[in-house]
Every structure is written in structure tokens, then in C-alpha cells.
Amino acid sequence: MEILNQTISWTHTISATLSLVFGTIVVFGSKGDLRHKKLGLWYFYAMLINNLTALVIINAFGKWFFPHYLAIACLIVIIPGITAIKFKHKYWLKIHIISMVISYYLLIGGAINEAFLHIPKLRPFINNNDPIFGITHMVAQILFIGLLIYFLRKYRKFGVNK
Q1: How does pLDDT run across 7-19, given as a tens digit for each residue?
Q2: Which of 107, 118, 125, 137 minimizes the number of CB atoms within 10 Å of its CB?
Q3: What kind and span of H or E run contains 31?
Q4: pLDDT band (50, 70, 90) for residue 67
Q5: Of 103, 53, 111, which is closest to residue 73 (Cα–Cα)?
Q6: Can you state the angle between helices 92-118 and 2-28, rounded to 10 degrees?
Q7: What is the rounded CA–CA span in Å between residue 23 and residue 36?
Q8: Distance (Å, whole) CA 110 – CA 116
Q9: Which of 113, 71, 91, 75 is closest to 162 using CA atoms?
Q10: Are 19 and 53 in contact (CB under 8 A)?
Q11: Do 64 and 83 contact (CB within 8 A), yes or no?
Q12: Which string of DSSP letters, residue by residue, matches 56-78?
């Protein structure tokens, strides 16, 4: 059983790391070219593996807790984000942008959680209920809201079927 848990944990860690790398390149790189499409698909698959493995990791508290629900939320978000590209209905690009930015925010939020849980110098901030943990998440939320507004404004004239 321990080998299975370690395999799931390592698969989760590797897929999360790949998600961070692919997601960063896709979000901050050029849009619509072959590189964006290929890395975007790799991001989707890495996120799929990352969130599916998150659903079965229970060793933090021995039961399901809040991050498991975030993994479900992320799965709910990335699937329309990828399928919108395939079907190209009237609002496909808006759905794609919103879905992918939210999924990337959830990934970064998870990384923030993991940093506070596993970096010894940061762990006391969670244990002592220090506001720095919440402030860190609030800063990330504000940055991602800005990113979402930026992309929606930049690409508002593209992708609308007439």
C-alpha cells in the first residue's frame, strides 16, 4: 500500500510541476501558434493527472478536506476550456480564456498552499493562523483577476463567429 501511495504522490508532484511549467509558458507566451496549442494540450493533460491524483491523496489529514474540492473545481473548469477550442461556438474564446486562467490560478493557489505546508519557515504562518497566508492568496487572486481582465479585453474581438 505504501508503494501505491508513494507512486500517486510522486505522480501528483511531477504532474503539478509540469503543469506549472507548461502553464507559465502558455499564459505568458504568444497565443494561437503551434507552440501554444501543443503546450496548452500538454498543460491540460498534466492538469488532468494532477487533479485526478489529488482526489486520492488523503495522507495530509487522513480524510478528504478542502483541497480535494478545489481539485474537483479545477476539473470542472479545464474540461470546458479544452472542449471550447474543439467546437468553436460563438463564445468559445471567452470560455477558453476564463477556464484556463481560472485553472492556472487554482494551480498557483495550490502551490501557495503546498509552500506554506512544506517549507519549514512558512509553516508557522498556517499553524498560528497568521494573516500572511490569506494575504498571499489575496495578492494571487488580485493578480489573476487582472490577468483575466487583460486577456478578455485583448482578445474581445477574436473568436466570435458571426
Answers
A1: 988 999 999 999 9
A2: 118
A3: none
A4: confident
A5: 103
A6: 130
A7: 10
A8: 10
A9: 91
A10: no
A11: no
A12: T--TTTSS--HHHHHHHHHHHHH
Task: Kindly report, residue by residue over 23-34, the tens digit of the pLDDT.
Answer: 999 999 999 899
Task: Enter the C-alpha cell of residue 139.
Answer: 495578492
Specify the pLDDT at position 60. 57
State the Cα–Cα distance between residues 76 and 99, nearest whole angstrom: 9
- What is the number of residues in the chain? 162
Longest CA–CA separation in the chain, Å: 56
Q: Which three cell numbers stand for residue 138?
A: 489575496
Distance (Å, rounded) from C-alpha 107 to C-alpha 26? 14
Angle between helices 66-87 and 92-118 (to 10 degrees): 150
